[in-house]
Design goal:
3Fe4S_ferredoxin; Alpha-Beta Plaits; transport; globular; electron transport; two-stranded antiparallel ribbon; 3Fe-4S; binds iron/sulfur cluster; three-stranded antiparallel beta sheet
Length: about 70
């Protein structure tokens, strides 16, 4: 199974962790809030998706499956 990651804009604290760790997936928008890179893959392997989301210091990254269900990170 593969996963995609969503950014909760209200929770992102602009640490830049996801942008640094996965520049192919995330960038900063004009407000310096993380957003998905346009066209970024939405079929991430589980280890990568969970590792990226777990590393977000504010818990702003949500991992979802193909049925749009949120996956527990821990
Ligand atoms: S790691 Fe989390 S807090 Fe940092 S920029 Fe990404 S979404 Fe925002």
């Amino acid at each position: 199974m593969t996963y995609r990651i969503e950014v909760d804009r209200d929770v992102c604290m602009s640490s830049g962790k996801c942008v640094a760790d996965a520049p192919d997936l995330f960038r900063f928008d004009d407000d310096e809030i993380a957003e998905p890179v346009p066209g970024a893959p939405e079929d991430l392997a589980e280890p990568r998706a969970l590792d990226l989301a777990r590393a977000c210091p504010s818990g702003a990254l949500r991992v979802k499956n193909a049925d749009d269900e949120e996956i527990d990170l821990f």
